[in-house]
Amino acid sequence: MTFEKDFLIGAATAAHQVEGNNIHSDYWVQEHMVHTDFLEPSGEAVDHYNRYGEDIRLMSRAGLNAYRFSIEWARVEPEEGKFDEAEISHYRDVIRTCRDNGIEPIVTLLHFTSPKWLISKGGWESDETPEYFARYTRYVIERLGSELKYVCTINEANMGIQVAAIAKRYMQQMMAKMQAAGSAQGGDSGKASPDASKSPAATDSGEKAAQDGTVQMGLNLEKMMANQKAAEAERLELFGVARAECFTSPRTPHGDELVMEAHKAARAVMRELAPHIRVGLTLSLHDIQALPGGEENAAKEWADEFTHYLPAIQGDDFLGVQNYTRTRIDASGSLPVPEGAELTQMDYEFYPQALANVIRRVAEDFKGDLIVTENGIATADDSRRVAFIETALAGVKSCLEEGLPVKGYFYWSLLDNFEWQKGFSMTFGLIAVDRATQTRHPKESLGYLGSFRG
């Protein structure tokens, strides 16, 4: 099975997860807090900032023809209104290295991390943020726009809503556990002890909440909740605000609207400066499956995750589809993975069939092109990665045969890297990295993905 020659087959990364030493970002600050939610700091990550040439050549030799990577806002604008020309030159070099190796560069302008100064000014709940994002976009596109064909404005624009939903469900589970424990002990079940968030019940419910694949990024939810009060006090000292409203923080409905305003503002800049660029954003999407009695809940979940964004994205050239697993929903809400199901390192159900289901459903409402901007698996067993890719791409092929406008597939991730709050414990990569020496070790799956090129 192969795809047409103009079909994009590539891999994806995010700057903070691979580059290293992103010292001006909000995540760098939080990783180094005393009361951090992170298992470990990113440090020099996998040194992609210096080794991008080697990594791009490995993709090219394996047969890949596209690379999706992000430009780091915190590098480009480390202080408010002060831009770093050396960093723009760096990203220009990355783009040109891609071109020199037959790789189409797909740039993402914001992949979760933001400059520290932005968070100190209210972050992603501030009405000023869309304007700041548009200014950053203008700076980048004025200098790099002529060298790009595709730009994703924002990665997983719906992530904050998903984090808010899982945090709410976690708290509900935790309170139910504590109330049940209180009743069993004959105490006042309506009161929680000050240390309730550190109880075994809280840990158990946190694990169950994290296992249903609701949020497609590395979160350490139980630690987040246990640290909440102490971390808020420390963030006030570091950022100057009581709540650090980062892009992946639990988002309010107003914050959700602001993300769309930021996207539209960036799109307008590109339409003005570089109308040849095909513009879109990416969304974290699940294969939402309604069990009997769960139809209403499933419809609401899909509306929250996708359809309510349609008015803001219908003017886009493409939509980036990002999928890792399915979510089953009954009358009570989201269900844990089925008993005995194969799990990935992220505790997602191994379910590569989900991708084709999501593509078909998205295409019902979004009429622009579709690009699979992320799809992959965290596993130590590369044969399971190969099997995942095989099934996922067979699904993409079937969608193309049905006439759906799918233009590319990007595996997540090119490299084993820093999986946010989970640190370096998750191995998604097509390339392993010995972090003691930063030596690259391509896996069989890298060449296997490249074999689908026409």
CATH architecture field: Alpha-Beta Barrel
Rg (C-alpha, Å): 21 Å
**Continuous helix count:** 17
Q: Roughly how much helix do the residues carry, as a percent range?
A: 40-55%
The top-level CATH class is Alpha Beta
- Look up the CATH topology: TIM Barrel
Tell me the β content.
5-15%
| Parts with pLDDT < 50 across at least 5 consecutive residues | 187-212
Q: Please, what is the CATH homologous superfamily? A: Glycosidases
**Structural class, judged by helices and strands?**
alpha/beta
Mean pLDDT: 91
What does this structure look like?
With 454 residues, this protein is of the alpha/beta class. It has a single domain, classed as Alpha-Beta Barrel (TIM Barrel). Helix content is 43%, strand content 15%. It has 17 helices and 13 strands. The strands form 3 sheets. Strands 1-2-3-4-5-7-10-11 form an 8-stranded parallel β-barrel, surrounded by 4 helices. It is globular and about 70 Å long. The protein starts with 7 loop residues before the first strand and ends with a helix.
What's the structural blueprint in terms of helices and strands?
Elements: E1 8-12, H1 15-18, H2 26-31, H3 48-62, E2 66-70, H4 73-76, H5 85-100, E3 104-110, H6 116-120, H7 129-144, E4 150-154, H8 159-184, H9 200-211, H10 221-226, H11 228-239, H12 253-273, E5 278-284, E6 287-290, H13 295-305, H14 310-313, E7 318-322, E8 326-330, E9 333-334, H15 354-363, E10 369-374, H16 382-401, E11 406-412, E12 431-434, E13 439-442, H17 444-450
Parallel strand pairs: 1-2, 1-11, 2-3, 3-4, 4-5, 5-7, 6-8, 7-10, 10-11
Antiparallel strand pairs: 8-9, 12-13
Helix pairs in contact: 7-12, 8-9, 15-16, 16-17
